[in-house]
């Protein structure tokens, strides 16, 4: 894997990401940097060589380009024939201009595709960043670009992706698709539209009009919206990323797109899926037409010239025309004035696959992996967010229209088999696509996770492998039914729920942790109080707070002691996750133990109503640490010795402490106790 950064090109070994990378340092000259600074650009953020293009040239070389401190440059990198060659260096003396291949400004995104030694790129080609174009450079064909300063073609675009998708078995029909977002061309409109555009690879431009300019360029709007009950659609207008999922039919891949909302009132993001059949239908439909600036866009109803604008020369429909220069002038003129299709491309099922609203993040990137599970093939979405996390999501069909979305996990991180590589300004991180061990040690948890990568193998939740030899593996991605899948294992799962002890001090707070392995599970807490067989469900109130991570008990009371059980329910299957025996220690008893044990004391000044304050209280954290294993034996030993001390020592200690009134008050309850020589039962 090759990564371009500021002044560096890095080669990473996908088989061992921790292997020492091969690095090329490719800075600009000091003179070029000084000229960039003198032009008013930032010395660190702009006046450097930001790598913007890395394309395979042949088996041994890469073609690379960088911004060159606002002076784009390109060159060739020798990478060797095999990874074992350990070769990675720039070819000396082969630096050339990068204009039309890489933008001047590193903040302006550019996309590219190198096909048969011809480079197609969507870039800004001027210093000021006002002239955006889709370019073809290099190779034997004529250099081409989109019509310059024509807002009907491109209007301040942000290029996202470029992808070659053949239309038929005839190579002359091959088209390159560009995905981008741009400002609406309507006068005075600030709206942003997401677009899909396309060109023919064998486009040579027009003969008299559109010379050296694309004569087959067409574009259409990409719609990703949520229909409302009143018929009004809520649009996600800003395209962020594209992933093209290949299928067995190379002509019909599946297009996954990430969108975000552009309005200030509504914030959210969504994932929409598009079929090439729907995309081609739109490009074969009516052209958008506008009579004048104050008119609405309408479908063109006049005569469409032959061959149909956007058709590739020498293809299935124009076998006798070998070049676009053979097209009649009326075809070229029509193309120049009608580059936009009237109909928009809608997603499959006319609705998004995944939607996020009212959250503090947005989706920014997407990668999709196909997984063969026991009950079918599934697509797992890996969605990167602007807060540096990756969500692993699967969408399951409920019926013909409804879909069920499951978040399998969310990985905090700063496209290759079994590994996901996440890049940011901080670096590159490798994330494993499957982490089956996080789903627990029970068959039910593994099944309820509904992760197509994972299955229960009889002992643990492990990586699923489609093999007829392993019939004992339990997996149910579609329904997630552990009652059916985990017969014989469910009782074992409940038996593994061990009871643990936890201590708290009267008046303080404590937290009981319980986090289900499955994000779809519903959590229920019940309490069985000391000396009672009844179990009562715990609900949130002014003292008790239920969180996604567990149960927070504030201002503990002695009555809060008992056995707390956390139960997860999903698909009518209940599973005890945690059993905690909470022991609440009496405040006065703890004060007494702290006083005689010599543990550190700290005054906690409480905050009350104006003009009042709480009395100083001891710090209990040291005591609670002693109550944990293995230090529990230490405090038990102290208490045993304390209760068995001779009476004369007790009297001496009493005389010493009579000078201290607060301590004397603490000892009053003890004067009424009868101390026995036998070991006292622990409280």
From TrEMBL:
**All residue ranges annotated as the Ig-like domain in the record:** 506-572
Start and end residues of each stretch annotated as Disordered: 650-683
UniProt xrefs under InterPro entries: Ig-like_dom, Ig-like_dom_sf, Ig-like_fold, Ig_sub, Ig_sub2, Immunoglobulin_dom, PSI, Semap_dom
- In this chain, composition skew of type Basic residues spans 669-683
Compositional bias, Basic and acidic residues, is annotated for: 657-668
Cite the CDD domains for this sequence.
Ig_Sema3
- A biological-process GO annotation: semaphorin-plexin signaling pathway
The listed locations are:
Secreted
Q: Where is the Sema domain?
A: 1-433
> What is the protein named?
Sema domain, immunoglobulin domain (Ig), short basic domain, secreted, (semaphorin) 3Fa
Species: Callorhinchus milii
Q: What is the lineage of its organism?
A: Eukaryota, Metazoa, Chordata, Craniata, Vertebrata
């Amino acid at each position: 894997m090759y990564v371009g950064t500021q002044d560096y090109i890095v080669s990473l070994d996908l088989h061992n990401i921790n292997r020492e990378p091969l690095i090329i340092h490719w800075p600009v000259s000091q003179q070029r940097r000084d000229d960039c600074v003198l032009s008013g650009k930032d010395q660190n953020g702009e006046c450097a060589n930001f790598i913007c293009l890395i394309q395979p040239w042949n088996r041994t070389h890469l073609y690379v380009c960088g911004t060159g401190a606002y002076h784009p440059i390109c060159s060739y990198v020798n990478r060797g024939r095999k990874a074992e060659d350990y070769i990675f260096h720039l070819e000396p003396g082969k630096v050339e201009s990068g204009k039309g291949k890489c933008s001047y400004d590193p903040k302006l995104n550019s996309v590219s595709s190198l096909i048969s030694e011809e480079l197609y790129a969507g870039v800004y080609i001027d210093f000021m960043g006002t002239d955006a174009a889709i370019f073809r450079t290099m190779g034997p064909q004529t250099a081409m670009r989109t019509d310059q300063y024509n807002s009907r073609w491109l209007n301040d675009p942000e290029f996202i992706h470029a992808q070659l998708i053949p239309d038929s078995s005839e190579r002359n029909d091959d088209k390159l698709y560009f995905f981008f977002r741009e400002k609406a061309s309507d006068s005075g409109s600030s709206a942003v539209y997401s677009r899909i555009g396309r060109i023919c690879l064998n486009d040579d431009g027009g003969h008299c009009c559109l010379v050296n300019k694309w004569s087959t360029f067409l574009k259409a709007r990409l719609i990703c919206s949520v229909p409302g009950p009143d018929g009004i659609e809520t649009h996600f207008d800003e395209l962020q990323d594209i992933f093209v999922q290949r299928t067995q039919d190379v002509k019909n891949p599946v297009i996954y797109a990430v969108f975000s909302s552009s309005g200030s009132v509504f914030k959210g993001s969504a994932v929409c899926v598009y079929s090439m059949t729907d995309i081609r239908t739109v490009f074969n439909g009516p052209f958008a037409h506008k009579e004048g600036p104050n008119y609405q866009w309408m479908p063109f109803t006049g005569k469409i010239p032959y061959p149909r604008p956007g058709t590739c020369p020498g293809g299935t429909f124009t076998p006798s025309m070998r070049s676009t220069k053979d097209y009649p002038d009326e075809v070229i003129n029509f193309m120049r004035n009608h580059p936009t299709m009237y109909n928009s491309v809608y997603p499959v099922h006319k609705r998004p696959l995944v939607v996020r609203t009212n959250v503090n993040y947005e989706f920014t990137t997407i990668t999709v992996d196909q997984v063969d599970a026991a009950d079918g093939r599934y697509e797992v979405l890996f969605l990167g967010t602007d807060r540096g996390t990756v969500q692993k999501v699967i969408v399951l069909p409920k019926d013909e229209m409804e879909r069920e979305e499951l978040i399998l996990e969310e990985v905090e991180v700063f496209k290759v088999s079994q590994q996901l590589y996440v890049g940011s300004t901080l670096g590159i991180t490798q994330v494993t696509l499957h982490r089956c061990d996080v789903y627990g040690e029970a068959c039910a948890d593994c099944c309820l996770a509904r992760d197509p990568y994972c299955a229960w193998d009889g002992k643990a939740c492990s990586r699923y492998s489609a093999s007829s030899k392993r019939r004992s593996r339990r997996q149910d991605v579609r329904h997630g039914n552990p009652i059916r899948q985990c017969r014989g294992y469910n009782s074992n799962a409940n038996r593994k729920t061990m009871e643990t002890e936890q201590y708290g001090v009267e008046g303080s707070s404590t937290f009981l942790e319980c986090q289900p392995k499955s994000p779809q599970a519903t959590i229920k807490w019940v309490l069985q109080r000391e000396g009672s067989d009844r179990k009562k469900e715990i609900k949130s109130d002014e003292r008790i707070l239920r969180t996604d991570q567990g149960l927070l008990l504030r201002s503990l009371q002695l009555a809060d002691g008992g056995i707390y059980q956390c139960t997860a329910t999903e698909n009518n299957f209940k599973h005890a996750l945690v059993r905690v025996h909470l022991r609440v220690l009496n405040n006065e008893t703890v004060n007494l133990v702290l006083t005689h044990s010599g543990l550190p004391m700290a005054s906690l000044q409480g905050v009350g109503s104006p003009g009042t304050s709480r009395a100083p209280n001891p710090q209990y954290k040291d005591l609670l640490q002693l109550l944990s294993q293995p230090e529990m034996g230490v405090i038990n030993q102290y208490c045993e010795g304390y209760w068995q001390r001779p009476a004369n020592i007790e009297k001496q200690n009493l005389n010493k402490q009579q000078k201290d009134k607060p301590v004397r008050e603490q000892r009053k309850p003890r004067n009424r106790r009868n101390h026995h020589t036998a070991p006292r039962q622990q409280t």
